[in-house]
Write a structure and sequence with these properties.
Order of helices and strands: EHHEEEE
Pfam families: HalOD1
Protein name: Halobacterial output domain-containing protein
Radius of gyration: 14 Å
InterPro entries: HalOD1 (IPR040624)
Shape: globular
Distance between the termini: 11 Å
Number of helices: 2
Organism: Haloterrigena alkaliphila
């Protein structure tokens, strides 16, 4: 995947996998991955819905799972707290700790902090 942080030189703080064909919710798997990566309780985290629409996230994964294109070609990145979360259509979840990230904060609050990538 070309533009997502999943290709940055530092490894993720935590990697997890979600079964896109299973009955569990992706948003719950993401929260568990963040909890594991940060050693915080779910109550100490910013609610996921403040960073991204969980229903849209589920629909993206459903689309990737039923697409004729390789599911790994779908990717979504978003920020929550001091973390970057990368989700791929094949069920990969990578959590990066960006608390010490050298990138300047250019946010004015007008950007969503969500990147989507689809390779053909």
């Amino acid at each position: 995947m070309n533009g997502l942080r999943s290709e940055r030189p530092s490894p993720p703080a935590h990697r997890a996998h979600f079964d896109p064909t299973g009955s569990g919710q992706l948003s719950s798997a993401i929260v568990r991955a963040i909890v594991t990566a940060t050693d915080r309780s779910p109550g100490q985290l910013t609610p996921l819905y403040e960073a991204i629409d969980p229903d849209a996230l589920e629909r993206l994964l459903e689309h990737a799972a039923t697409s004729t294109v390789d599911a790994a070609a779908f990717g979504l990145e978003f920020s929550v707290d001091d973390l970057e979360v990368v989700v791929t259509g094949d069920g990969g979840i990578s959590v990066y700790d960006c608390g010490d990230d050298p990138e300047p904060d250019e946010g004015t609050g007008s950007e969503s902090g969500v990147e989507f990538e689809y390779e053909q």
